[in-house]
Amino acid sequence: MSVIRIRNLRKAYFQKKVLHGIDLEVEAGQIVGYIGGNGAGKSTTIRILAGLDSRFDGEVEVMGFDVQKNPIEVKRRIGYIPEAADIYEMLSPREFYELVGGLQDLPWEITLKRSQRLEEYLQLSYGEDQRIDSFSKGMKQKVLLISGLLHDPDLIFLDEPLAGLDANSVIRVKELLQNLTERGKTIFYSSHIMEVVEKISDRIILLDKGKIVANGTFAEINAQVRSGSLENLFSELTGAGNESISDFDFTADE
Length: 254
Ligand SMILES: Nc1ncnc2c1ncn2[C@@H]1O[C@H](COP(=O)(O)OP(=O)(O)OP(=O)(O)O)[C@@H](O)[C@H]1O
Description:
Blueprint: E1 2-13, E2 16-27, E3 31-35, H1 42-49, E4 57-62, E5 65-66, H2 71-77, E6 78-81, H3 93-103, H4 108-121, H5 137-149, E7 155-159, H6 167-182, E8 186-191, H7 194-197, E9 203-208, E10 211-216, H8 218-226, H9 231-238
Parallel strand pairs: 3-8, 3-9, 6-7, 7-8
Antiparallel strand pairs: 1-2, 1-4, 4-5, 9-10
Helix pairs in contact: 3-4, 3-5, 4-5
Bound molecules: adenosine-5'-triphosphate.
Adenosine-5'-triphosphate (ATP) is lined by residues 13, 16, 18, 36, 38-44, 192.
């Protein structure tokens, strides 16, 4: 079953065209890495899929619902973990989970149990009444991740989920994502670094300047790179083959 279906998606911010006709279908139970350089349009696509921006042309269906006509039905069924969200930092994590769980109509006991399990798994520990504003970037990222999973959504969108996490936490989050797909969930996440995603993604979609330029398994994409068709983009996304910057001098013309 397709959980995401996109037909000719075009998006502009005022005069600036950002997405130039995206076609995409994602089957349930996959981990999909949505990869592209800075400004390629990844966050824009994810915000549209999450029902947060209805100003676009084309057709976008998520879990069988048209996101423009039924954004609420979409939001009920998905989890959305943005790269950096305006989190209520005056609250403690527990208060924040209670707020988010309440918005999803979850009984408090369920919210508490799930958040405790996830905190333990992600090794997030803090003082009893500690507020989120005293947390590090990585700790806040974990709170966001946990709050986005509380209602056990079937489709989970993550925007740069590993940014700001230490090496051990990266491993934990990757394991968590794999564990979720083993339970039948679908994961769609963005990154601008290829190597972050290659090991866990069933499928990789490469986005370049608002267009999908490759879509397949890592092996399939690798073959295209070797044939030369994706070489430049690949080196940009992996950092491979970049010229040395040791000679760089920003005061050279003075
Ligand atoms: N609210 C906005 N108003 C105007 N332009 C925007 C807005 N949001 C994004 N853009 C522009 O749309 C383009 C795509 O941005 P987007 O954030 O989707 O890229 P991205 O692939 O997620 O990049 P990054 O990896 O840097 O997060 C960029 O040129 C950006 O400047």
